[in-house]
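Structural prep section.
Before we set up the soaks we want a predicted structure of the protein with pyridoxal-5'-phosphate in place, mainly to decide which crystallisation condition to try first. Input record follows.
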Amino acid sequence: MKTHNFSAGPCILPQEVFKEASESLINFDNLGLSVIEISHRSKSFVAVMDEAVALVKDQLQVPDTHEVLFLQGGASMQFAMLAFNFLSENGKGQYLDTGAWSAKAYKEAAGLGSAEVVASSKDANYNYIPKGYAIDDNADYFHCTSNNTIYGTQIKEFPQTEAPLICDMSSDIFSRPVDVSKFDLIYAGAQKNLGPAGATLVIVKKDALGKSGRYIPTMLDYNTHISKGSMFNTPPVFSVYVSMLTLRWLKANGGVEAAQQRNEEKAALLYNEIDRNPLFVGTAAVEDRSTMNACFLLNDEAAHKEAFDAMIAEKNISGVNGHRSVGGYRASMYNAMDLDSVAALVDCMKELENKF
Ligand SMILES: *Cc1c(COP(=O)(O)O)cnc(C)c1O
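Run finished without errors. Recording the tokens verbatim:
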């Protein structure tokens, strides 16, 4: 029986990708060797890195002004790395505070120099995206988080600003088209829509670099990695390889536009049930609801939680517990999730209603 994996991250990837990746662990590229035992500088692996970069460029229509990198350290390392590269001694970074990840990003900039929060939804446990705030066009950069994995909110329209625009897209990259030319830096930990943990995707505008005036530790300097094609040191080979396979799968399935359609269909199915079913309530502001992570509560946990959890277990639904800071349930519906998995969850919600 199929297990429906709603985990927020690491999370579901396409079954075809798992199959091919598992074969590559024994015999990669007909070399009689595993993908994780060959040199990262071998012809076979260099081809993997090149294809992964080319697929990112193709899928997101990355303009020639931007470089695509696969780094390590997760999105969390980017919080500090971007500050070293973009925040000057006398300048300031501006932040939109939409959740725990935004706050962690802000902390790293504030520790290095001057950082400001332009707006925050912390007062409402981050259940909405602030709007109508002002960004200083002269700031060194403006930082936002496109999808707030923990709270289930998502920026639908990015702000206009003359300041360099930086975005943590860890949990919704490749889930919808994005105009990369508007951003100076986009970064994403691989483990939410792309591949296994270990690689971090970075898309950076070349012109925007070299302006912070700081000493940048070698490993934290984007230019180090640009000049070496993401091979300054040993890259996370397996994570890059599986990311490449996922990108091939995405392309074969119609690319980001088709993914967006499927994601909207899945999200609509679940949100319609959350809104219709009197036993449940959604936690995120309706206009800001994420297509990737849907957060909801039972109106009466004491009366219904035990029965609902039993139904979920019976249907082989996994990973729907809400983050500890929100409670309730969180259904993550990344690209690789099929509509039938969301339908299985919705069936449980209907069954619960019929029972009580
Ligand atoms: C998961 C997540 C992170 C943290 O990613 P790591 O790769 O574990 O550092 C950062 N930002 C967002 C939006 C996330 O969802």
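Observations: The radius of gyration is 21 Å.
Flagged for discussion at group meeting.
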